[in-house]
Design goal:
Length: 141
């Protein structure tokens, strides 16, 4: 099933809004032994079926993606078992520009960057590996 959001449904409208506005998600990769490896990530939904993320180099997440590119991007629910949004897709390292050169990313995470005593440039130097998730499916309720 291709990735698309049916904004004619209440779930589709909520999912679209949350994917645009939510700042933290859980990226789930799979370790060599098949164990799920969830890590919190910042992400930007900047293309129809594509999400941009950045990583520090030499992480388990990158090794997992290289060997097993199927991933899930989970947004936290509402704390009561609802408002669940999960994007399934394939992740890969890309040649996207540094985070500091992506105005929408810098704007979305400006407060987080400042709170961690980074500038956009120092964040981009630390998290210098761009990743993309090419979404294939949306799940949730």
């Amino acid at each position: 099933m291709p990735f698309e959001i049916d904004t004619g449904t209440p779930f589709g409208r909520r999912a679209q809004q949350r994917l645009r506005e939510t700042k933290l998600a859980w990226l789930v990769t799979t370790g060599e032994d098949g164990t799920p490896q969830p890590v919190p990530v910042w992400f930007l939904w900047d293309r129809d079926a594509s999400f941009l993320l950045y990583s520090r180099p030499a992480t388990a997440k990158l090794r997992n993606i290289e060997a097993r590119p199927r991933v899930a991007l989970h947004l936290d629910g509402n704390g009561e078992g609802g408002d669940i949004v999960v994007v399934l897709g394939d992740a890969s390292v890309t040649d996207d520009p540094p985070a500091s050169d992506v105005p929408a990313y810098v704007q979305k995470y400006a407060a987080f960057i400042a709170r961690n005593s980074w500038t956009p440039e120092s964040f981009a130097a630390d998290y210098c590996v761009p990743l993309r998730i090419e979404a294939t499916r949306l799940r949730g309720f």
